[in-house]
């Protein structure tokens, strides 16, 4: 048994550093020449969007910890300060990689006859087109804010991108007589970030909206008698003022949460600007934005806010995108028979986006109109903009069903959408529950009560049509009496959180999930010592919980093989003799975002399978309502194991996650690999998402 001091010395990567490592894996995919060219731009956009959210929430939290004046949290402040410095170093390094990757992709686009031109590179005809575009469409959407007064720019939206302009009036002798400064918010919401010009000789021409407005500055400031115009792109990221994440010990969490009120609302914490910006203009912006010494400043290139690259025009070049993989309809769920009846006969499953989400929608629609269905309960975390799920629930309510919806109003950055749909559902007569104070509801559950037998659906991901096209998630539909009963008890617990309840089948947090997961690992350790089969297979988004990591180290030390698939944060360090040499982690970045959570324990040869909503993080285990469900159906178990094995074999899109931050792709470790298996390594080139799609498609033929 290790002492507390020894446990503290066990290798651990701070959560926010591990996140930076994860986001770089996305950047590496953007730099991968084997990825279709326009998809590489999408990965750059994802990288940039992720980084914005990271600064809004995680870096904001670190800043609050550092700034809060309380000697009792000095230890946390030291860790936060060190983490912030390391984030700054990684950010600068990755930013250079980003700029180099972006420049390289721009050059490769030219080879495909796609040209992204600047305002100085236009032909006379293109100039006429842009001038006409300004007068007919853009005019009135550009509203400069002068910087000549001292009013702070604290009401600007950090979702947007801005031009800082320097306006000069010279006399006939060329001497500067007047100098003004202004900020222009780019109207990307109305026009997008990229303006497509007329094709010429089979060549496609695009311009950043930034450059369109640069060219149009004399039209914007017409009548002001300026002689010279300069414009430089900048962006900033604000403190999102979300509740501090629960990785901190409770006392610290309470102290810092109180300190949030003393921090200025929406204060910028990252400022990214064109390094060519003149010093006088830069000084004006820093003052007006209230940027201080703790905030991140990045002197970058000409363009920022690269999340817009996710909407880069496809230019009618399907050959530069991934080939289409149409979602597959499972034959047994695509016939004329009632899906509710089929589920009562046997457990069913769907693996998105390989399988169509429409099959799940069909279950809700059938429940909405079936005379045998009495009630529907569902937990919703994020909702699609035009949610078919909600429409089915409203239909059920109008048909006299008792519909209960648990909706999480604090789903980060989706609060407004969730509030909108909540009102729509309440107006339709749906009983809407806004969760439990202090506990974010992250579980993905459905309970359908019927005269012929109740059923339940348990998922690893949100019931969200958009996510189901982009995220790999797994849904199980079952009529198993005890599981269905306990799913209903979870809803009862949410409605009456102080009612004592004990779960036998489900693992529920914050009830007992942590304790039972540790018990499962302890059982593997015990079995190994007794000479029985012992191994752990798991697929999660994040692993940062110290207690679970220590338990996995203990299992590895006992000789248990632990194979993990971790997409995002991973605080665990592999390959350390005597600690983690039996732990192997693969991190996959591919066309779909890996999101499912699957757990398989050897259990002495009688394997135990679980899927659900929870990652191995303190917030999931202690501060959210999460659910893992056991899987008993042998066919579904085989499918889950196939998913795990395929992912572990992925050498094309997999990266070695070992705590070093090197993110080495497996295929780069074996430079001699070809499509044929290499005897020396016993590893072949294998892309799990592609092979899974082929396998599922074959099963429909």
TrEMBL record:
The keyword ATP-binding applies. The active site is at 442 (phosphohistidine intermediate). GO terms for biological process: polyphosphate biosynthetic process. ATP binds at residues 50, 471, 567, 595. An intermediate of this reaction is the autophosphorylated ppk in which a phosphate is covalently linked to a histidine residue through a N-P bond. Keywords: ATP-binding, Kinase, Magnesium, Metal-binding, Nucleotide-binding, Phosphoprotein, Transferase. One of its GO terms (molecular function) is metal ion binding. Residues 590-620 form the PLD phosphodiesterase domain. Pfam families: PP_kinase, PP_kinase_C, PP_kinase_C_1, PP_kinase_N. It catalyses: [phosphate](n) + ATP = [phosphate](n+1) + ADP. Its EC number is 2.7.4.1. Mg(2+) binds at residues 382, 412. Catalyzes the reversible transfer of the terminal phosphate of ATP to form a long-chain polyphosphate (polyP). NCBIfam families: poly_P_kin, PRK05443.1-1, PRK05443.3-3. This is Polyphosphate kinase. It comes from Bacteroides faecichinchillae. The lineage of its organism: Bacteria, Pseudomonadati, Bacteroidota, Bacteroidia, Bacteroidales.
